[in-house]
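Archive transcription. Copying these from loose printouts into the bound notebook so they stop getting lost. Printout 1 of 2:
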Amino acid sequence: MDSIIKISSEQSGEFSATNNVVRFRIPADGQYDLVDSYIVLNMEATGEVSNAGVVTQVPAGGKSNFRFQHGGTSNVEDNVSFIKRIRITAQKLGIVEEIQDVNLLANMTKLYSTSLTAHDGKNYKNINGRHLEGMSISPFRTFSGPTQGVLTGSTITTTIPTTDKIFGCNIALADLCSIGKLRNAPIDMMGEMTIEVELLLDAWAATQITQIPDLPSNLTSQATGDAQVLELNTFCDQLHNTSGSDQILGTDTGFTLQRLYESGDLNTCPYYVGQPIQFNLPPSQGDGADVVVGAAVNLNTIPSSFSTIAKLEYNPTTKKITIFTTTAIGVTGLENGKFFGATSTAAFATAIKVSIPANQANPVLSIPTAQIVVKRLARPAQVSPQFNILTYETEVVTLSAIQSFRHQTRLPANCIGFLVAVPNTQALISSDTHLRNYRLSVNNIQLTNRPVITGTANTLAGQNRSGLHYSLLEKGFSQMGIPLRNLTEVVGSTTEVTMNYSTGVILIAGTTSITPDMKTLDLELNSVDASISKVIIYKAIVKPISL
């Protein structure tokens, strides 16, 4: 039977932007299936601060919902984003592979080789991936919503607290290097294998998740001050204020939300135990009258205090959810006898806002340990003593922002193709925001007889991306053995409520052939403005391995 082996890194954590080199050693004791092997970065979110006295912070005992983003972007990040460089060495062979800026290369080739549907289906595995249904949730917390409740009588009750957890960030070797694509890696013949990775750990920051995908039709999202708010069409079972100028909600009988989950699908419920919560109510419109909201109403006129959800109750028959809070939610400024709730559902369209507070003291990313999980084969296969792998040499050109880029570089004799990325200010994707056109030539032979247009509606009015671009992509990917399944050239955004892809990307591909001597690549890029500041050239080379 095959063996699954977990090997700890030679280095001890805490890993950081300065302590960011991690090595694993795979013993030369057999053959390994490296396709099913992966690196695990064990991540925690630490340092979150609660402060009930500041309304934009999480109250004491609250558990915020957050995601980590790199460099302030809203792009959906693949887990390969954490690996900036990978080096594979074998005791008998020396350096087998070394790829710089492998995270950008892997991100881009995965975008082109994976359909959008497949991307969506795998998003839940990524550090900041979105969810198709229900609330987009942090992988660092186990949230306790109505689906975790227990049926008692006619009510499903949820009191399980939301807890912190370690996120195992899995990164497949096959996404990082050609050696990782071997089903029968003869490490027993290659000698002890060392896998060294340099982590990209700077510029990762937590942001509060305030948008909820796939909301019912009676919920909308609006901004009110520093908080994202959810509009509830119905806020029932709260009659007019008869107790004086202040009103206390939540701790005694709870407050009931109805008409939210008429389908009975609790997976779409945006509320969980431990969630910070606040109300913003419009001013009352007169004694004995229901609340009527006009366009000019300031929803911050009568804000409540913050509290956290202590318990959720759901009645499957009435389709009502009742929320209980840990402390009383005080609403001040309501005159005696004024309505702020009504039994008439029609009277409460846009009447009451529920705020999900932003956390000003966001947690930081922590990686205390790292391992590699490898599969050792019980029945080794016969392996040829000579085989080839396709790997990449990386050339990075950094310059002051310019509009036209001309560059000449040498391609190795065993180079069969190349990929060009223009990350500019983006660290993990190649952005098409400003690129107008490009031209390629190898040994003074033009790969096209005219400039390849890349301008879109966002960059050059009236011009669409040229078919030549897709023809070059098809030839280049085929030459390099990369499947081409997606030509949308967009990346997902974590700020989208629905699963929309809006950020444009581009990867330039070209082909050549193995030659006795080195070759010359002439590269010309033109943008609509002075925006070209970084260009990365990945040179695909065929490397023979002799055992």
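Printout 2 of 2:
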Amino acid sequence: MAINPPVDATRTQAWAQLQQHFNQLQQQGISLRQWFAQDPQRVQRMSFDAGDLHFDLSKNLITPETLQLLANLGRQVGLEQRIQDQYHGVHINNTEDRAVLHTALRRPESDEGKFVVDGQDTVKDVREVLNRIYDFARKVRSGEWTGITGRRITTVVNIGIGGSDLGPSMAYEALKPYADAGITARYVSNIDPNDLAEKTRDLDPETTLFIIVSKTFTTLETLTNARCARTWLLGSLRAKGAIFGDGQDADAVRRHFVAVSTALDKVEAFGIDPANAFGFWNWVGGRYSVDSAVGTSLAVVLGPDNFENFLQGFHAIDEYFASTPLEQNVVALLGLMNVWYVNFFGAASHAVLPYDQYLHRFPAYLQQLTMESNGKSVRWDGTPVTYQTGEIFWGEPGTNGQHAFYQLIHQGTRLIPADFIAFANTPHPVKDGGQDVHELFLANYLAQTRALAFGKTADEVRAEGTPEAIVPARIFSGNRPTTSIFGDTLTPYALGELIALYEHITLVEGTVWGLDSYDQWGVELGKVLAKEITPAISQDDSALAQQDASTQSLIQFYRAHRR
């Protein structure tokens, strides 16, 4: 299938050297306490800066030799070439024969003409769409764009699913302090009617704008919700006496609905003016699309200037990743370290723990980005993998997790590498008496990585006067790996940096494992079967008879209990 089949990482010299290195570390005993004591320069040698983010890798189960061996592995599997291939439009999405060019979404206007791929001036086309989005956003923000009754828009409802929801909804939550036009956003993704019902329950239809996000305008969940939203809008406007009769329905839809789609015929058939449709290209995968037209809701709520800063943050990490040698490239090293933990330590999951409440949806966003990309058991040439791939990404913000699942990370039997993310400044500084609350919060951020790294020995527990019978329960083994990511302030720029960071980490892992990180065939089968099962649920006995025994039984339960 592939012209250039992947290098089997496990057959490289670097992999063999990493295995030997791992065995030596195990024999000698891994002790972060000892490593820190023996190497006063450890933190300095394992700290990096990319963009305006600071990274401390010193509390990971690595030595300087580990990092060099991991860089060697990256070279031997062709990581440097694959990075360049991605940036320049080689069709590295093998199963769909597509380029992978989300990095073009955030290139500056000065790059027009420099990245022509398959005959398309990618940057020029991106900038043309961005300018249209910015013009639209300015009209909504200024009040020039109004609803059917002439009232200005105060709520934007984004209807999409997957990357068309997770990206913009996460970014909206992260950047709420920058919403400066009196416009809020809501996000509908689940086909469960409860989602749309709750999101529209207290909305005024006269001041609500819907953005329907579906590249093909055929996505089942999105279009179902879009039609239901249209029904809600027209019914609510009629109930208020804002419109009368069918003659005004079409105009109401045109004033209250826009689209992110390239299927202009389907957009028009829905009732949306094609002039108010913003497209993107097949070289942009859904989970890599938040900085495309998929982010239109963000441009409206945050404004074009903030959205442009968002793109600049992405681009800063893009440039760093593409131009920095692997040994000094913290983005690449983080991806390679994930391989180190998965394939040598047997780690099955990876925690992302943002110490910033505004990032509370960031772990959920990363779940799609990482697991849809690298949750594969077949390499990009169609051959089966012979090693573990993928990680379960998960997490919660700040001190919430400390009072929930941190117990497992500290004292459980599973090794769970964790990324801790924090910012030095907060938009809401406050003091509790004389205590700066943000500093109290950051003290927890710092304390947790210290506790995970260095633990607490039995002798230290005894020294506190703990009864001997309880001592084992209060021991912390330490040597639980963490990476600390520290920024100045969670700005649009910084959020762009963080997203790009994990996008590229995903590429690094996928390259080592030989995976096509840009297809997602694993989500298709369930969708197909759902269409087959739907008639069987309520009405079609012949369709019911075609189902397996378990599905039949469950449908029979449904029929018996549905009111």
